[in-house]
Design a protein that fits this description.
CATH class of the largest domain: Alpha Beta
Number of helices: 16
Shape: globular
Distance between the termini: 57 Å
Catalytic activity: an aldehyde + NAD(+) + H2O = a carboxylate + NADH + 2 H(+)
Family: Belongs to the aldehyde dehydrogenase family.
Enzyme class: oxidoreductase
CATH topology of the largest domain: Aldehyde Dehydrogenase, Chain A, domain 1
CATH superfamily of the largest domain: Aldehyde Dehydrogenase, Chain A, domain 1
Number of strands: 20
EC number: 1.2.1.3
Largest sheet: 7 strands, mixed
Pfam family, one: Aldedh
Number of domains: 2
CATH architecture of the largest domain: 3-Layer(aba) Sandwich
Length: 457
């Protein structure tokens, strides 16, 4: 049906809080053609002017931070403290980091011998973003694409379209010219497919599931367009035998349960020396007990609901599968939390004595579920960490920074934190293996939206 209504459901209350009209494939075609027509003029706009607009977008997001945080919490259930501190604040740092590069003198060109090497905007970008970070992922694609000189057609997740609508208002207020930015709504098989298959779209930047990424790669190959993918993860957290176990346990739970576990970089596998396994599980259980599911609008809440009923059921089924596989249930379980009878909640769960061949150790669950795997020695820890189709993130804890760095170097993953190293919004972000390709944020994220041209003189 043309322009069917997409209803937005608050996952904590199960009530409809808004709606948007789904676009059609024909409307996608109109948007893409308009972006294609606007591209030459936008690409020719002085870099300083494009960067100034990027700066105004960052400032616009900052000015509406609290409003955006509340909207994100209402749309997808992220606890309000996390929505304010991360969901609506990190995008400002990401956008500002891109603009700071240009203001610092980066000009998309370099001399190599007798060649002038130029980075030129790739063209029309189809940006397809997920529901778990509905503002951050949009900003991480749209702002560098615009600054690079590309035009953009954005399709946000149909689960969280209201945040994208608010962002579109900010883009318009920042002075982006007509035709340069377009927002379309809809579902993957129709609107997403129309963007990916369109011959006038030069690049797809996608964040989402690995299954969807495979489909996008296949469809994009038909027109040989660039496809940049940020996909799933099953990140390993290696605890070495000299680590501060109490501190590591606290951070292990925090990094696994971040955004209620709905984070692609969540460290959902903890690897611990076998002789320390029981002690560490006890510490983890004590910390996890403090993560009580609750109202995401309460600043004290650490774990909100899953984004949809389907996601709730998916996570619960994985928890049951872990029980059926024989892992030790240290805390949590597959039953719905008694304290939250309304809303799509699950019980934060820790499994002990997990083997790496178990489903809960191999598949991305996307909920507050932690698997603890014992290992014999450092070599086995690295082998277990790398024995995954994914390679998005990871971490190492050790009292010896050099030893931790040596282990981090051996991990086949796009990001590694040592002893809780802080997230860097201008460092390259992306994955190895089936966690995707390409990079976002900072210089590498900006250059992702460019083509290289060598002019010999």
């Amino acid at each position: 049906m043309a322009n069917e209504l997409i209803e937005v459901v608050n996952p904590a209350t199960e009530q409809v809080i808004g709606s948007v009209k789904a676009n059609t494939a024909a409307e996608v075609d109109t948007a893409v053609r308009a972006a294609h027509a606007a591209f030459p003029g936008w690409a020719a706009t002085p870099l300083a002017e494009r960067a100034a607009i990027g700066r105004r977008i960052a400032e616009g997001v900052a000015a509406r931070r609290d409003e955006l945080a509340e909207l994100i919490t209402a749309e997808m259930g992220s606890p309000i403290s996390f929505s304010t501190r991360v969901q609506a604040s990190l995008p400002v740092a990401v956008a500002s980091g891109i603009v700071d590069l240009v203001d610092g003198g980066y000009d998309f060109s370099e001399e190599i011998g007798n060649s002038l090497v130029l980075r030129e905007p790739i063209g029309v970008v189809g940006a397809i973003t997920p529901w778990n970070y509905p503002l951050h992922q949009v900003v991480a694609k749209v702002v560098p694409a615009l600054v690079a000189g590309c035009t953009v057609v954005l399709k946000p997740s149909e689960v969280t379209p209201l945040t994208a609508e608010a962002f579109a208002e900010i883009v318009r207020a920042a002075g982006v010219p007509e035709g340069v930015f377009h927002l379309v709504h809809g579902f993957g098989p129709t609107v997403g497919e129309a963007i990916v298959s369109h011959p006038l779209v030069d690049m797809i930047s996608f964040t989402g599931s690995t299954a969807a990424g495979r489909r996008i790669s296949a469809v994009g190959a038909e027109t040989v367009k660039r496809v940049s993918l940020e996909l799933g993860g099953k990140s390993a957290n290696i605890i070495l035998d000299d680590a501060d176990l109490a501190a590591a346990a606290k951070q292990a739970i925090a990094h696994c349960f971040i955004n209620s576990g709905q984070t692609c970089t969540a460290r959902t596998r903890v690897l611990i020396p076998a002789q320390l396994h029981d002690e560490f599980v006890s510490l983890l259980t004590d910390v996890a007990a403090k993560y009580t599911p609750g109202d995401p609008t309460d600043p004290a809440t650490r774990v909100g609901p899953m984004v949809t009923k389907a996601q709730q059921e998916r996570v619960k089924s994985y928890i049951q599968q872990g029980i059926d596989e024989g892992a030790t249930l240290a805390i949590g379980g597959a039953d719905t939390p008694a304290e939250t009878p309304v809303g799509y909640y699950v019980r934060p769960t820790v499994f002990a004595n997990v083997r790496n061949d178990m489903v809960i150790a191999q598949e991305e669950i996307f909920g507050p579920v932690l698997a603890v795997l014992p290992y014999a020695d450092e070599d086995e820890a690295v082998a277990i960490a790398n024995d995954s189709i994914y390679g998005l993130s990871g971490s190492v804890y050790s009292a010896d920074a050099d030893r931790a760095l040596a282990v981090a170097r051996r991990m086949r993953t796009g990001q590694v934190d040592i002893n809780g190293g802080a997230f860097n919004p201008v460092a390259p972000f992306g994955g190895y293996k089936q966690s995707g390709n390409g990079r976002e944020m900072g210089l590498h994220g900006l250059e992702e939206f460019t083509e290289l041209k060598a002019i010999q003189r």
